[in-house]
Amino acid sequence: MSEPASTEPCQKKCSGGRPCREDAEARHLRMLDVAQEIFLTQGYAETTLDRVACEAGVAKKTLYEHFGDKAGLFAAVMQRLRREWTAVLHDIAIEPADLQGALQRVAEHLLEVGTRSDMLALHRLLLVEARRFPELVNGACTEDGARADMAPLAEVFRRVVRDGLLDLDDVDLAAEQFVYLVLGGVRARMLRGVCVRPDADARARIARQAVQIFLQGSVRNRAAPDSRMR
Question: I need a labelling partner for 34 at 20 to 30 A (CA). Which of 61, 93, 117, 142 fits?
């Protein structure tokens, strides 16, 4: 069956007849925006490339050129959301005198991003459909089995262990445990629909208590953590 004529809107062309870089980038982002909305509201199985192409105003072949197939498109959506999740973690500065403050900032970032409606929708989608569509989690783990989205936090812990500030046997496991301590309870309640998203003050309180509990069990020599933030 022949490919239908392109429905893409007219664009400025650079030399050679190709769209200018700004237009190409805008079109790429538009495809991701539309795909993300459809995946997160309709689910993976019900999402079709035909619908994404139609709503994004591009030809279906353009999606294939950019993403390969539906699994590739979903992977691109996940990668973009994961970058938002890990952005702050790459730049976090850990000072020995302010370890608790640094972890507080990490925890507040995890709560701010992790309780957003789009992140909750992604979490729900993976829980429901990953068994039927294992390609959904392709790339979610590193070669040694650790979760890729935990890697920046694990690196933070690796630095503080190296500096003698924390006593952790397994930094990858500690990163996962920290995230669940910070986010697990409130996210589970939100997914069940029994609570609304905490406001900024409530998220700060949740983060503060989670950090205090974590440090009580991991500060080297089991010294009591700084109590300035109580």
Answer: 142
pLDDT in tens, 152-205: 888 889 988 998 889 999 999 999 999 999 999 999 999 999 999 999 999 999
Burial state string for 118-145 with b = 16 or more CB within 10 A and e = fewer than 16:
ebbbbbebbeebeeebeebeeeeeeeee
Please report, for the chain, the start and end positions of each structural domain, with discontinuous segments joined by +. Answer: 15-68, 81-222
- 214, two tokens: 């974590």
Length of the chain: 230
For domain 81-222, is the CATH number 3.40.630.30?
Answer: no
Question: Do the beta carbons of residue 130 and residue 136 sit within 8 Å?
Answer: yes
pTM exceeds 0.85, yes or no: no
* Average pLDDT estimate for 97-111: 89
Closest Cα partner for 218 from 88, 103, 49?
103
| Overall CATH class of domain 15-68 | mainly alpha
